[in-house]
């Protein structure tokens, strides 16, 4: 299959190109930045470049974007240009080129203010049925791009699947307070229980979305590691999250103490991937339980693919796409 991957110099784009090429697909990587996985260098905001990218493609995996950390470094118009106009250009060219499947990498940040319950309320149980309430230009533009995908499926019959991915970057959090409170891998490991996913699992979700796009027509999925928590835990997670972790994973306390780590005091949301597991047949491998076992055994808890891609170090200042 001939597959276009946009954002090929970014974390996910590189991971997708590596995986698809290893499977024997003919892959064209496109990005504004040069990289070993990028064949076409340019911006999807340029309609002619978008046309060149899509030419001959059977499927499009659209991962190019301006990310949440760019909110502090890029003007709002650049978000509209890249995330909305760039997506529109690709969709229009995909229809003209007869593309068979279009997979759009969105974000759980699109849920916005729905992720932050009022004081005293239980943590939010975030599934596809939760109505997004974007709180910044990143969320606004990603949601707009999702809606364009839905429109093109309805209007042109282009099979489109939207994947709302949770955090998978290896870089530090864009919240300095969180970084100080939970240094190193402490925060990332904590998050695997409710708001993070390994890039290997993100790639497998994209592969399944590609395979099932034509049967689905249009669909949205939350892509995050499988949470150990249930809806009955939401009040306790908001009030004393550490106690809930210890109840589910008694061994974590000793391991955390050995590393000088801390469990979270309070959690405001839990991402639920049940729809993706049922409808896509997605089976994410990396979760909090597996990671805890790796830590106890002195093993690297990241997937081999996450280690291969590594840290990019530019996601706060440069455009991917």
Structure description:
By secondary structure, the chain is of the alpha/beta class. The chain has a domain at 2-175 and 197-227 and 269-285: Rossmann fold, CATH 3.40.50. 42% of the residues lie in helices and 13% in strands. It has twelve helices and nine strands. It has helices at residues 11-22, 47-54, 76-97, 137-156, 176-181, 186-191, 199-216, 234-248, 252-259, 274-279, 288-296, 304-309; strands at 2-6, 26-31, 40-41, 59-62, 101-107, 124-126, 160-165, 218-223, 269-271. The strands form two sheets. A seven-stranded parallel β-sheet has the order 3-2-1-4-5-7-8, with helices on both faces. The chain has a two-stranded parallel ribbon with strand order 6-9.
Brief write-up:
With 321 residues, this protein is an alpha/beta fold. The longest helix has 22 residues, at 76-97. The protein has 12 helices and 9 strands.
């Amino acid at each position: 299959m001939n597959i276009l991957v946009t954002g090929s110099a970014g974390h996910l784009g590189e991971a997708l190109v590596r995986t698809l090429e290893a499977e024997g697909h003919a892959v064209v990587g496109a990005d504004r930045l040069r990289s070993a996985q990028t064949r076409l260098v340019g911006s999807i905001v340029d309609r002619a470049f978008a046309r060149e990218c899509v030419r001959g493609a059977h499927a499009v995996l659209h991962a190019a974007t301006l990310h949440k950390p760019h909110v502090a470094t890029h003007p709002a118009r650049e978000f509209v240009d890249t995330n909305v106009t760039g997506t529109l250009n690709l969709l229009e060219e995909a229809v003209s080129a007869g593309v068979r499947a279009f997979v759009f990498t969105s974000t759980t940040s699109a849920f916005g203010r729905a992720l932050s319950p009022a004081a005293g309320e239980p943590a939010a149980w975030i599934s596809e049925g939760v109505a997004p309430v974007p709180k910044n230009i990143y969320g606004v533009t990603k949601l707009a791009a999702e809606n364009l995908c839905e429109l093109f499926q309805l209007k042109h019959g282009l099979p489109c699947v939207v994947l709302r991915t949770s955090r998978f970057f290896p870089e530090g959090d864009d919240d300095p307070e969180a970084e100080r409170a939970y240094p190193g891998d402490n925060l990332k490991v904590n998050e695997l229980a409710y708001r993070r996913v390994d890039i290997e699992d993100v790639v497998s979700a994209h592969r399944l979305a590609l395979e099932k796009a034509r049967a689905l027509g249009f669909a949205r999925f939350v892509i995050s590691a499988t949470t150990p928590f249930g809806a009955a835990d939401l009040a306790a997670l908001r009030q004393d999250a550490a106690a809930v972790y210890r109840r589910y994973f008694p061994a974590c306390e000793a391991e955390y103490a050995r590393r000088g780590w801390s469990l979270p005091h309070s959690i405001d949301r839990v991402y639920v991937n049940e729809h993706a597991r049922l409808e896509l047949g997605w089976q994410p491998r990396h979760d909090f339980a597996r990671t805890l076992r790796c830590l106890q055994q002195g093993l690297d808890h990241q997937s081999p693919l996450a280690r291969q891609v590594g840290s990019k170090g530019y996601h706060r200042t440069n455009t991917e796409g």
